[in-house]
Amino acid sequence: MRRMEKPLPGGVSAHDRFRLPDTISPKHYRLTLEPDLRNFTFIGSVEIDIAVREKTDTVILHASEIGIMEASVKRGESGIPVLAMHHDTKKTELSLHLDATLYAGDEAVLSFRFSGILNDHLNGFYRSIYKTESGASRMLATTQFEDVDARRAFPCFDEPAAKATFDVTLIVPKELDAVSNMRVVEETDLGDGRKRMRFGTTPQMSTYLLAFTVGELEYLRGRTAHGTLVRIVTMPGKKEQGRFALDVGIRTLQFYEEYFGIPYPLPKLDMAAIPDFAAGAMENWGLITYRDVNLLVDPVHSSEAGKQRVAIVVAHEIAHQWFGNLVTMDWWNQLWLNEGFASWMEYLAVDHLFPEWHIWEQFLDTDHARALEADGLRTTHAVEVPQGSVEKMRQNFDAVSYSKGAAVIRMIHAMVGPEVFRRGLQAYLARHAYGNTVTEDLWTALEKASGEPVREIMDTWTKQPGYPVLDAASGEHKRFLGSGAPLTEQEAKQQWRFVITAKEGKLNPGQTILLRVNYTPEQWAQLIGKMRSGAFDAIDRFGLVDDLLMLARSGHAPAETLLSMLSETAWSEPSYLVWKALSSAFAEVACLVPEGTVAEKIWDALARHSIEPVVAHLGWERRPDDTHADTLLRPLALHMFGKFGDEETIAEARRRFAAYQEDEKALEPNLRGMVYYLVARFGGEEEHAILSGLYCVSERSEEKQRYLSALGAFRDKALLLKTIAFILSGAVRSQDVPSGAAAVAANRHGSCIAWDAMVANWKELKRQFGPSIMLLSGLVEYVSGQLGTLEEAEEVEAFFKKNPVPQADQSVARALERIRGQAAWAARAREPIARWISAR
Ligand code: BES
Ligand code: ZN
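A: This is the predicted complex of the input protein with BES.
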């Protein structure tokens, strides 16, 4: 078989080639699929028009877990015999050895007939189950192709740069309906209970963006000012819950058309709620698919946080319609271009739609701080990932690509200014529309627009792992490691480019540069004083708290300094954002205080004392003049107040829970998660039975999420074991197993239980998740990463040595580093914390 002779980018030799040879490019696909929802199978056929770029007698393309019944090749009118066909199931490649040579410039047509399985692993072409309003089970068939699973549905050149146009035809039972990227252009009754639905030709696009959904569908329709049809697609009975997303979708689409200066190029945009869905949502061009909790809003039962989540996810996926779909990364190592950008853009759009939400503040917690945590690990990776196998690439959907990517965009946006940034972006999109890019192309466009050496600066942020801690006293910076481990020689040499300013003695106002700043104890004392006197806005106060927590954890700053900050500033802190950081700092310290001791009583009392003013101010009742932040802060404050032992709050939670059981409307949605949590935390067998019972009967995803997470909050080991059994009983959809297990693992009484359960059920879990690495790697990371001793680290390491998961090795590595970091912090800080507390 002929192999690539030419070296690939990144110096990969032909031997360990992981990209298709570029001898052939696909031009157009004519794809027909017929799912069988009774037997969970499908059959299909595809014709692919190809252009030959280099002389070859072998055609290589992708196919995975599909049976090829027939393969043929035609050049012009004459067929070329296929001498042999080889399916490398490990590489998921199909090679056709031809009885003739194809020459550069030739055009040919590949034809296949094939069959496959409608799997239950939530990727490729898969089945999903839901219940109708009358309780009957129904099935739908849908797709999730990113990153490399289009090949599970049909033979194709399954690489982001192999763009082509697609004609999709679906053959479905007459009583069902189907959607795809484009509109239906022809529907034919086949007279035998089936119908054929032909969809319009797509624009030039990547295979991973193709999609179709077949089932009983219901629509909610609207149009943009320019007449683009936008629809919410749901299972029967749910469309009304799409109102909010429809409105957000239409307005976001209009906003982006204006911001990017390029009209949305398709005639319609569908947004479908899929009952079983591995990711949060997927940006398929013209047919965005969502977990239903990320699309549907129930006016009576959804919280403000739930609505905000829907707006964010919708804005994220619609941003991809330009950034990702119109202009696509050349290869998966540039994934951050897609995900980092969309993770930044979602805020810009939501801020435009809901200025009163002050959503950019939340960026600091949800993305900036998340990036700093993940990228503070030695096992992080550069935003632009060095070339590697597809298996390695699949793990890039992580905090670095998303959140560090977004923070890097925020940094450059601040550096060149909003108008220049937008001009550069417009030029970039226009220049590369329907094409593929690498990071450099974006920098080139921004460089042209700004006249600044964008690339030189940004390369230091995207081409090397990690970020710096800046020493305020010396002005020097070096790589920050959250574990506090000493830097290797190589790490010690790392440097970054940035220009930093100061305000009121605090560096990096607005936290635009992605770094931490460390101060001397005297400087910290001054900053703490100024935090109280209102010298800094919420974003800067958040930065100070998050930095100091992480600097103390890593041994860069004394634990006592952190304790002074908490004890001196928290009681006067009004901001939701800052409380996000403060509440985790209080919890982190609590983990190092032995249970049942006087010290614990003192710490709990300090925590209660600190949050009490917020509780007193906001109370339990919604007020007409509540801001968005008040609505989010109220449950956070009550949660913390109750968790640290305020009896009255716990009693009130119980009262409201009882009332809720009588009448759902008695408990407003914003308080539900907190109430369920407190009821479980301080509850027993009875509460467990009620919550798991409610979980089983509820058909509302947001409610189910809240019940499940409360089921992880019990303190009693036997009850936590029950929760684990419940999660594994089949009552919980596969998609929710990782978050259910995470709830148990995040509970200090449950981390070992969750780990033991994962180990005991490892084979079954692997089977259940199958090739869907997202769920398995999520589970591995959440569950293992919550342990906290060196012995446990050994155990985790030994387990994964014996049971290797190459598709999730990054998750394992991160978990191990986190456990060891936690152990180091405990060893360093336990005593100073005990001393500080006993001196109070
Ligand atoms: N492209 C991703 C979905 C995806 C993730 C596909 C991983 C394959 C593997 C999509 O745009 C996305 O990023 N979804 C997020 C939600 C978003 C609001 C951050 C998700 O799924 O969590
Ligand atoms: Zn995305």
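The chain is about 45% helix and 20% strand. The radius of gyration is 27 Å.
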